[in-house]
Hints:
mainly beta
Amino acid sequence: MQIQNLNKVPSFITKDGSEIRELLAYRNSSIKNQSLAEARIPENGETQEHYHIETEEIYYVTHGMGLMKVGDETMDVRAGDAIAIPPGSKHKIRNTGKGTLHILCCCAPCYEDDDTILSDEV
Protein backbone atom coordinates (compact mmCIF):
# COMPACT_ATOMS: atom_id res chain seq x y z
CA MET A 1 0.00 0.00 0.00
CA GLN A 2 1.27 3.45 -0.88
CA ILE A 3 -0.03 6.58 0.83
CA GLN A 4 1.07 10.16 0.20
CA ASN A 5 0.03 12.95 2.55
CA LEU A 6 -0.65 16.35 1.00
CA ASN A 7 1.20 18.12 3.81
CA LYS A 8 4.36 16.05 3.25
CA VAL A 9 4.59 16.29 -0.56
CA PRO A 10 6.88 19.06 -1.86
CA SER A 11 5.36 21.66 -4.13
CA PHE A 12 6.69 22.80 -7.50
CA ILE A 13 5.60 25.28 -10.17
CA THR A 14 4.26 23.82 -13.42
CA LYS A 15 4.73 25.25 -16.89
CA ASP A 16 1.35 27.09 -16.64
CA GLY A 17 2.35 28.80 -13.37
CA SER A 18 0.37 26.62 -10.95
CA GLU A 19 1.77 25.62 -7.58
CA ILE A 20 1.34 21.83 -7.60
CA ARG A 21 1.73 19.07 -5.07
CA GLU A 22 1.84 15.76 -6.91
CA LEU A 23 0.22 13.17 -4.67
CA LEU A 24 0.44 10.08 -6.85
CA ALA A 25 2.19 9.42 -10.16
CA TYR A 26 4.94 7.19 -11.50
CA ARG A 27 7.51 9.57 -9.98
CA ASN A 28 6.53 8.69 -6.41
CA SER A 29 4.40 5.52 -6.51
CA SER A 30 3.49 2.41 -8.48
CA ILE A 31 0.85 4.38 -10.43
CA LYS A 32 1.80 4.38 -14.13
CA ASN A 33 -1.12 5.64 -16.27
CA GLN A 34 -2.45 8.67 -14.42
CA SER A 35 -1.55 11.27 -11.83
CA LEU A 36 -3.28 13.08 -9.00
CA ALA A 37 -2.09 16.47 -7.80
CA GLU A 38 -3.40 19.46 -5.88
CA ALA A 39 -3.03 22.88 -7.50
CA ARG A 40 -3.19 26.10 -5.50
CA ILE A 41 -3.95 29.43 -7.15
CA PRO A 42 -3.53 32.49 -4.92
CA GLU A 43 -6.21 35.15 -4.50
CA ASN A 44 -6.47 37.18 -7.75
CA GLY A 45 -4.10 34.70 -9.46
CA GLU A 46 -4.61 32.66 -12.60
CA THR A 47 -2.93 30.00 -14.67
CA GLN A 48 -1.59 30.69 -18.15
CA GLU A 49 -3.83 29.43 -20.93
CA HIS A 50 -2.49 26.11 -22.18
CA TYR A 51 -3.45 22.71 -23.54
CA HIS A 52 -2.14 19.17 -23.40
CA ILE A 53 -1.39 17.16 -26.52
CA GLU A 54 -2.21 13.73 -25.05
CA THR A 55 -3.42 14.25 -21.50
CA GLU A 56 -7.04 14.52 -20.50
CA GLU A 57 -7.68 16.23 -17.18
CA ILE A 58 -10.33 16.46 -14.53
CA TYR A 59 -10.25 19.48 -12.23
CA TYR A 60 -12.14 19.09 -8.96
CA VAL A 61 -12.49 22.28 -6.92
CA THR A 62 -12.09 21.56 -3.20
CA HIS A 63 -11.85 25.13 -1.81
CA GLY A 64 -12.69 28.54 -3.21
CA MET A 65 -14.17 29.76 -6.47
CA GLY A 66 -12.91 30.71 -9.88
CA LEU A 67 -13.61 31.48 -13.50
CA MET A 68 -12.83 28.44 -15.66
CA LYS A 69 -12.23 28.66 -19.40
CA VAL A 70 -12.19 25.53 -21.58
CA GLY A 71 -12.10 26.17 -25.32
CA ASP A 72 -14.53 28.99 -26.07
CA GLU A 73 -16.62 28.45 -22.92
CA THR A 74 -16.17 30.34 -19.64
CA MET A 75 -18.06 29.45 -16.45
CA ASP A 76 -17.94 30.21 -12.74
CA VAL A 77 -16.81 27.23 -10.66
CA ARG A 78 -16.77 26.61 -6.92
CA ALA A 79 -16.03 23.93 -4.34
CA GLY A 80 -17.71 20.68 -5.37
CA ASP A 81 -17.49 21.31 -9.13
CA ALA A 82 -15.69 18.86 -11.44
CA ILE A 83 -14.51 20.09 -14.83
CA ALA A 84 -13.73 17.83 -17.83
CA ILE A 85 -10.80 19.00 -19.97
CA PRO A 86 -10.27 16.90 -23.11
CA PRO A 87 -6.82 16.64 -24.75
CA GLY A 88 -6.13 19.57 -27.08
CA SER A 89 -8.57 21.91 -25.29
CA LYS A 90 -7.08 25.27 -24.34
CA HIS A 91 -7.88 26.03 -20.72
CA LYS A 92 -7.10 28.29 -17.78
CA ILE A 93 -8.57 29.19 -14.42
CA ARG A 94 -8.64 32.45 -12.48
CA ASN A 95 -9.23 32.68 -8.74
CA THR A 96 -12.21 35.01 -8.23
CA GLY A 97 -12.77 34.32 -4.54
CA LYS A 98 -11.24 35.28 -1.24
CA GLY A 99 -8.26 33.18 -0.23
CA THR A 100 -6.48 30.42 -2.13
CA LEU A 101 -8.27 28.33 -4.76
CA HIS A 102 -7.55 24.60 -4.31
CA ILE A 103 -8.08 22.13 -7.16
CA LEU A 104 -7.43 18.41 -7.42
CA CYS A 105 -6.04 17.65 -10.89
CA CYS A 106 -6.41 14.14 -12.28
CA CYS A 107 -4.39 13.53 -15.44
CA ALA A 108 -4.31 10.52 -17.75
CA PRO A 109 -1.66 9.87 -18.85
CA CYS A 110 0.42 11.44 -16.07
CA TYR A 111 1.11 15.17 -16.09
CA GLU A 112 4.28 16.12 -17.96
CA ASP A 113 5.68 19.59 -18.75
CA ASP A 114 6.56 18.28 -22.24
CA ASP A 115 2.85 17.61 -22.93
CA THR A 116 1.88 21.16 -21.86
CA ILE A 117 1.73 23.78 -24.61
CA LEU A 118 1.26 27.40 -23.54
CA SER A 119 -1.12 29.29 -25.85
CA ASP A 120 1.42 32.08 -26.35
CA GLU A 121 3.95 29.51 -27.63
CA VAL A 122 1.73 28.60 -30.59
